[in-house]
Amino acid sequence: MIVRTTFKTxxxxxxxxxxxxxxxxxxxxxxxxxxxxxVFDLYSVETLRDRYGLRIGESFPTDIFVFGKGEPENPSCTxxxxxxxxxxxxxxxxxxxxxxxxxxxxxxxxxxxxLVGESVAGHVLLLLTDATxxxxxxxxxxxxxxxxxxxxxxxxxxxxSTIGCAGxxxxxIHRSADYPDSADAAFKTNLDQSYNLPxxxxxxxxxxxxxxxSGAGTDKSFLCQLGSIQAAPRVRFPWVNHREPLNLExxxxxxxxxxxxxxxxxxxxxxxxxxxxxxVSRNFECY
Length: 287
Description:
Layout: E1 2-3, E2 11-13, H1 15-22, E3 35-36, H2 39-51, E4 60-69, E5 79-80, E6 102-108, H3 113-116, H4 118-121, E7 123-129, E8 142-148, E9 169-178, H5 183-188, E10 201-202, E11 204-206, E12 221-227, E13 229-230, E14 261-262, E15 269-274, E16 280-285
Parallel strand pairs: 2-9, 3-10
Antiparallel strand pairs: 1-2, 4-9, 4-11, 5-6, 5-9, 6-7, 7-8, 11-12, 12-15, 13-14, 15-16
């Protein structure tokens, strides 16, 4: 499922292999718009866009991620949970009571310089939270840290994870585009979750934010989006490095197992924006 000859920082999905894997499914009728986590989610969305002629109007390039489970070979890659990319010569940030901040996720922009600019592309953005659940909804308990990609990272750093025992999950990149002008055409298809077809919904860099609600109060430049992580059930490669399908159970073999998903609110997404000075702000929406 991964391209082996790529020069990207991230592993890159072999989309042609995904087409060969899923094209003969008798369940092709089951294709729908998806919140993208697994290879099948990406295949479903891209296939329906082609099938129904939804690549119309102005396009906005975006890098969308599907996920592997475990730590990536390159510790600076986009990921959720696990070991953060942090300088070896710096102490891990703490909260006012002296306890360590929790690591939520990081975004590496190296493969997206044409989308975000060279200055941003030379950094990894870390998302840290406090130990409560209030960070998701309130204005506090959330901090951002820009880390240059050329630092010497701490190799054995262990910090609390915001997503608990889930994952970690590492991003495998795919260049696509958003097509906002296809919204009416997508609605007329009567496909399940057709609203996920014009603007990709998932963890992404660049392009357009896939707002679940109104997107109110977000007038700064969109940088990236962290979507809820929930693998596609009953298909091969729910994670790019795990071939066996997951079921619908709440155990280690199911997509609802506590180490197999990271869900924000009710399948929500965290949207990050940046101003000209590099200051990051965020918004959160869910169903």
